[in-house]
Design a protein that fits this description.
With about 70 residues, the chain is mainly β. Helix content is about 0%, strand content about 75%. It has one domain. It is elongated.
Length: about 70
């Protein structure tokens, strides 16, 4: 599985009256395995690239999930 995401966002802080808009790109790469029992396990990796002062450079996340299928 491979998913690509591009987004834009913004935030505003009322205390200091500051705000910023950011742009990012991310992908989601993962594998899944179905057992004979109704259980599915998956491992996902999500690299992210940000393009602003708030959200810049490379970040990544990894996730492991176990799900029941019915």
């Amino acid at each position: 599985m491979l998913v690509l995401v591009v987004g834009i966002g913004s935030w505003k802080e009322k205390v200091n009256n500051t705000s910023e808009t950011f742009i990012f790109g991310a992908g989601d790469i993962g594998i899944e395995y179905n057992f004979e029992a109704p259980v599915l396990i998956s491992l996902d990796f999500r690299p992210e690239f940000g393009f602003s002062n708030l959200y810049k450079g490379f970040n990544s996340d990894i996730a492991l999930s176990v799900r029941y299928q019915f």
